[in-house]
Design brief:
about 0% strand
Length: about 110
Amino acid sequence: MRLVVIGLVAGVFSAVFGVGGGIVAVPLLILVAHVPERIATGTSLGAIGITALAGVIVFGLRGEVEVGYAVLLGLPAAAGALFGTWLQQRIATTTLTYAFAMLLTALGLWLLIA
């Protein structure tokens, strides 16, 4: 049941703010569902594909998807995901946890200041 709630929360955040997978689902999977960090990351990436497809269908039906921009963002992002996965497997879990926490903190502060 926890995974269903986490998925629902991540889906709502994804649709409202354009985020969800990494920003919402990974911390919730780790803290609420007690999923190990590396598995939470991989699981979140799998769920992102499903979430993104649902979102792009709805936004696309409303004419709110710029396909050219999506491709220009998506192809390099796919390459980055391949490299990031390789890199993530070579970094200690504790280091990943601290780096992710610092990223979330920095993004939050940036949004508040900007």
